[in-house]
């Protein structure tokens, strides 16, 4: 094999490597920067949860948990279905309170991912809200019983052997100690292990497995991976620049620049197709009839959470489409420049010596 043949083979190999690396780097830059643009800070997540009314519907989830706790407890059962009790819960665990608590958790988790703290540094005190809920329920129970008529003999006979429920009892037995009944309700709710047993929510208070680890302990490598992901786009950007320059210098300059432009258009078009298909698949799977949507339509809270997820993923697809447009426009601009600017300047530089010779 001759020297020229070897050089041609080496040149083609270099062109193939530079072209492949350029396309791969451009893809990676778009994919990684889109992730960072949407999920790199807590702002987008906070906005998505708020705009999707997750906090408004989450109040009903708190009520459901309170109802389950009351049903599993012994003694007087708390009537969560009572409108007075529901109003007390919605007032204590308001959307504003849930939003503030959630944002503390999200912010503390991002501090941990960014390496600003050894563990997620959120501390959510739900004790005051829980106490306000209990106080409102106890107060409502006392007011209801106080306003009831005194029981007749027939009613007293019907009540014998039953547990007094301040929210369902039809009358007030004569001599009933209302304060004592209120205290029974307060004690039941305060000591109920199923109803918000943790008054301070932190990373350390999360449930632990048999090995004594919570969810964050199992993800102890997440901060390193997160910080690495933030530097990845710039690594791929440098690779794209170097591989692009490699194409220019390995080939004839004009042909190399043209290869860069074609690569930009090719990657942009492929990226646009991927973004379109990804958006279509997300809409299909997250819809009420989709595979994911059908399993997360049981409550308004799940629907709101699904809407927040759809919003975030939609933003990611939107960022990919921005890269699609940017790549295609840049590639077309390069090809147009080669077609009109390069050709118009080259003949002028070559014709200049002939003009000077004629002048002599």
N-end to C-end Cα span: 50 Å
Largest beta sheet: what is the strand line-up? 1-2
Uncertain ranges: 344-352, 354-360
- What share of the residues lie within helices? over 70%
Mean of all residue-level pLDDT scores:
83
> What would you call the structural class?
mainly alpha
The outline comes out as elongated
Description:
The chain is an all-alpha fold and 360 residues long. Helices cover 73% and strands 2% of the residues. It is built from twelve helices and two strands; from the N terminus they run αααααβαααβαααα. The chain has helices spanning 3-39, 42-51, 54-72, 83-92, 95-113, 127-146, 153-159, 178-191, 215-218, 222-250, 253-286, 300-359; strands spanning 123-125, 200-202. It has a two-stranded antiparallel ribbon. α1 crosses α12 (300-359). The two termini are 50 Å apart. Mean pLDDT is 83; it is low at 344-352 and 354-360.
Describe the structure using short key phrases:
73% helix; mainly alpha; single chain
In short:
The chain has helices spanning 3-39, 42-51, 54-72, 83-92, 95-113, 127-146, 153-159, 178-191, 215-218, 222-250, 253-286, 300-359, and strands spanning 123-125, 200-202. With 360 residues, it is mainly alpha-helical.
Task: Furnish the topology, listing elements before pairings.
Layout: H1 3-39, H2 42-51, H3 54-72, H4 83-92, H5 95-113, E1 123-125, H6 127-146, H7 153-159, H8 178-191, E2 200-202, H9 215-218, H10 222-250, H11 253-286, H12 300-359
Antiparallel strand pairs: 1-2
Helix pairs in contact: 1-10, 1-11, 1-12, 2-5, 2-12, 3-5, 3-12, 4-6, 6-8, 10-11, 11-12
């Amino acid at each position: 094999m001759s020297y020229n043949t070897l050089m041609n083979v080496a040149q083609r190999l270099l062109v193939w490597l530079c072209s492949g690396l350029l396309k791969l780097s451009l893809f990676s830059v778009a994919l990684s920067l889109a992730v960072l643009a949407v999920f790199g800070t807590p702002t987008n997540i906070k906005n998505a949860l708020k705009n999707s009314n997750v906090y408004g519907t989450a109040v009903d989830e708190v009520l459901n948990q309170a109802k389950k706790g009351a049903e599993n407890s012994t003694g007087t059962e708390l009537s969560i279905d009572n409108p007075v009790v529901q109003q007390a819960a919605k007032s204590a665990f308001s959307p504003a309170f849930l939003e503030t608590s959630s944002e503390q958790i999200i912010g503390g988790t991002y501090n941990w991912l960014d390496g600003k703290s050894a563990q997620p540094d959120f501390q959510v005190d739900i004790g005051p809200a829980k106490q306000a809920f209990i106080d409102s329920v106890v107060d409502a129970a006392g007011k209801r019983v106080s306003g009831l008529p005194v029981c007749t003999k027939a009613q007293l006979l019907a009540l014998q052997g039953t547990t007094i429920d301040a929210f369902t009892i039809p009358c007030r037995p004569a001599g009933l100690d209302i304060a004592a009944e209120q205290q029974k309700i307060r004690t039941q709710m305060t000591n109920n292990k199923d109803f918000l047993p943790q008054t301070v929510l932190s990373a350390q208070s999360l449930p632990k497995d048999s090995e004594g680890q919570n969810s964050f302990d199992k993800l102890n490598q997440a901060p390193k991976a997160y910080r690495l992901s933030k530097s990845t786009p710039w690594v791929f950007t440098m690779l794209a620049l170097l591989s692009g320059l490699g194409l220019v210098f390995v080939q004839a300059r004009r042909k190399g620049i043209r290869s860069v432009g074609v690569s930009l258009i090719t990657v942009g078009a492929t990226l646009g197709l991927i973004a379109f298909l990804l958006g279509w698949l997300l809409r299909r799977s997250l819809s009420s009839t989709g595979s994911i949507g059908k399993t997360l339509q049981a409550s308004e809270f799940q629907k709101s959470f699904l809407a927040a997820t759809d919003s975030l993923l939609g933003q990611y697809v939107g960022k990919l489409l921005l890269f699609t447009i940017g790549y295609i426009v840049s590639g077309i601009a390069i090809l147009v420049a080669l077609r009109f600017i390069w050709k118009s300047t080259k003949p002028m530089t070559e014709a200049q010596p002939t003009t000077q010779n004629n002048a002599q």
